[in-house]
Amino acid sequence: MKHFVTFALLLILNVHQAFAGPVRIKDLVEFDGVRGNDLVGYGLVVGLNGSGDGLRNAPFTEEIMSNILERLGVNVAGEQFRPKNVAAVFVTAALPPFARGGSQIDVTVSAIGDASSLLGGTLIMTPLNAADGQIYAVAQGTIIAGGVVAEGNGANVTQGVPTAGTIPSGARVEREIEFDLSNLNNLRLALRDADFTTAGRIEQAINADFGRPVAFMLDSGTVQLNIPETRMASVAHALGRIENISVLPERKARVVVDQRSGTIVMGEDVRISRVAVSQGNLTLRIEEAPIAVQPNPFAEGETVIVPRTNAEIEEEPGIGLAEVPDGTSLSEVIAGLNALGVAPRDMIDILKSIKAAGALHAEFIVR
């Protein structure tokens, strides 16, 4: 049977095919304590081609510019200066786990004033703070903007987002996160998608690989490791061995629908109970066509507007009453609807109605 896909994307994912083979534990869990930290800073971008902040609308830009100049030994107290090539920005970055002093990380720069573009600008040395208020990195460099602006006397065009950009390796780590991995006796594995079956399989796979009980499932989202029982040279050696153990994960029956793009993503385990489906569209059209009636020649009277209304109802062809047998997979239902030429948005409405009727046995997520 040939399936026809409309312009709006209809995507059917078969979870069984996507996860046909085992998956490494490192792709299923996060190791407790082995995590990144978010950094943020407030800085100044210079060198813009007249696309910076209007200092009348962004006085904080003038304030930070004055502070920077004064730290460099330039006294600007009481001076009036309003350059158009500077912009105040927020600088964000993620400090990866075990980042050492001197290593470099990427940063994202975003304008917070009324600057129209950061293209070609240079970020002045900006300290980046973590949630504890301490400085962990310092950022500086030339910005690679994410868009472009072209303008003339009568029109302008913008592509992408020129008010935000990145600086690859634009920040240097100045302070390290204190975390002593080597002295841990117990370490928890946090599943990204909590599931009792998957957690149990991880426990069994780790114990089978080491040949003794070194892992214990605490709940659907946590597996605890007894590090001394691994008898490895260090915690790092134990984690390096564990993260490459393969496990077959279990997934919930789930249907995800994106109404804006008409995308439908589903798993193979989604099932539908016995249900009957009928779908069609009614179109009501009302047109006003008033007629002007004038008096006869040489007769007294006034022109009168006589209303004329044309009303009609059209029923577009849809799906007649169709019965879906018990135990049918959702992918088979979608394939049948798709073969009938049902539009993705109508298909989404049908799925909503089947879920509301209690016949769709899966988690239904609408975005």
Automatic annotation (TrEMBL):
Assembly and interaction partners: The basal body constitutes a major portion of the flagellar organelle and consists of four rings (L,P,S, and M) mounted on a central rod.
Which keywords fit this entry according to its UniProt record? Bacterial flagellum, Cell projection, Cilium, Flagellum, Periplasm, Signal
Question: What protein name is recorded for this chain?
Answer: Flagellar P-ring protein
Family according to the record: Belongs to the FlgI family.
Q: What is its main location?
A: other
Q: Which HAMAP family match?
A: FlgI
The secretion signal range is 1-20
Organism of origin:
Roseobacter fucihabitans
Task: Give its localization.
Answer: Bacterial flagellum basal body
Q: Which domain of life is it from?
A: Bacteria
List the PANTHER family.
Answer: FLAGELLAR P-RING PERIPLASMIC PROTEIN FLGI, FLAGELLAR P-RING PROTEIN
Q: What does this chain do? A: Assembles around the rod to form the L-ring and probably protects the motor/basal body from shearing forces during rotation.
Q: Which Pfam families match?
A: FlgI
